[in-house]
Amino acid sequence: MDKKTVSAICAIQKEEIEGYHIYRRLGRLIKSPNNAKVLNEIADNELGHYAVLKGYTGAEVKPSHLRILAYVVMARVLGLTFSLKLMERGEHAAEETYSGIGALVPEVEGILRDEDAHETSLLAMIDEDRLKYVGSIVLGLNDALVELTGALAGFTFAIQNSRTIAMLGLITGIAATLSMAASEFLSRSHEDKAPEGTNALTSSVYTGIAYIITVTILVLPYFLLGNPFASFAIMMASVIAIIFSFTYYISVAKETPFFSGFMRMALISIGVALISFGIGWFARTYLGFQI
Q1: Which of 154, 204, 221, 256 could be joined to 185 by an S-S link, Cβ 3.0–4.6 Å?
Q2: Domain match, 16 and 117 both
Q3: What are the pLDDT digits (tens) for 196-223?
Q4: Structural domain contains residue 291
Q5: Is the pTM of this model over 0.85?
Q6: C-alpha pair distances (Å), 84 with each of 55, 75, 209, 247, 280
Q7: Burial class (CB in 10 A: 0-12, 13-18, 19+), 258
């Protein structure tokens, strides 16, 4: 076995031993005994794969404790679903390497079967509130991005005073948050085909939280900076960052296409901002609107 092959197998060993520690840690974190049992079984399989590969390389490969901690923190903050599916993406990449060493390591076929079984088990165990209510989160996020981005863009050119724009944006955002949350509650209350396990009040809370967090991020530059146009530029950069982050999260957790979702949200938000910016310019230039 040449050095290149040994190095490739050692890289997979590292993935397996890190997977063992991550699954073990996650198994201790979650409340469901059933899910914890599945994670612990997968962890044992990962450790078994590591032992098989070590028999060929003779190397004791140390895991990256930073990577282990990152996945555990990710599971706490972003949810178990996102963390596990991100791990599964890494395992799919490792499968290509496994295929390349199949002739040298006969056990590879069994390891690949285990990896496929992992994915099936993980998908069967996932049941998180944040994914049940993802439609409500998307509603709050989309509406805040489109409505407030447009309002702030219009205020920026028409008013040209950061403090005033910030206050108007905050008042508009809070009022819109309450309105959107109430509308979501009423809509869900009269909806016959709401997602299983969801309720109207929780849906409205998720919508309101997504809305107010977005409002805070978009308005903040106007409170911090004196130049309204610099604030507008930072606000638009924040819009793109929010859309990118949320679309990536959904693409991993719900296995949806990333690029099309990102472009759709980005183009709508930017388009509305540009139109509103033009309306603000028209109001200031031709209608004499100034504060």
Answers
A1: 204
A2: yes
A3: 556 778 778 888 888 888 889 999 999 9
A4: no
A5: no
A6: 28, 8, 25, 17, 46
A7: middle
